[in-house]
Specification:
GO terms for molecular function: protein-lysine-acetyltransferase activity. InterPro entries: AcTrfase_ESCO_Znf_dom. The protein is an alpha+beta fold and about 110 residues long. The chain is built from two helices and four strands; from the N terminus they run ββαββα. The N and C termini lie far apart (about 50 Å).
Length: about 110
């Protein structure tokens, strides 16, 4: 007699939903589950940042590396010892870059 255990774990409940599978947004490319409130909120936030850009007014203690000509653009340096809010903003930018470039950057 073979000692095999069967797994009867059910990962999804299909109760007749029309959009049961993940949906890929044609604008921002993010995959999300329609009908899942938290997933739709996450997609809405990401979509807005992708389409309108990430809001950034600047930091008091920012390190400007370079200021390219034209517009009010600047390249900033963020180090490991900087505040968590600075690192979160960098991760926000990286999320958009990963999606746009088609690969994932491992931090």
């Amino acid at each position: 007699m073979l000692n095999t255990k069967r797994s009867y774990a059910q990962y999804h409940l299909e109760l007749g939903q029309s959009d049961f599978l993940l949906h890929s947004c044609s604008v921002c490319g993010m995959m999300y589950a329609p009908g899942d409130e938290s997933d739709e909120k996450l997609h809405g936030d990401f979509h807005k940042k992708y389409y309108e850009g990430i809001r950034f007014k600047g930091w008091r203690d920012e390190r400007v590396v370079s200021t390219p000509s034209g517009g009010n653009c600047r390249i900033l340096l963020v180090l490991d010892g900087d505040s968590p809010s600075h690192k979160r903003k960098v991760k926000e930018v990286l999320m958009i870059m990963e999606k746009e470039l088609g690969f994932q950057i491992v931090l």
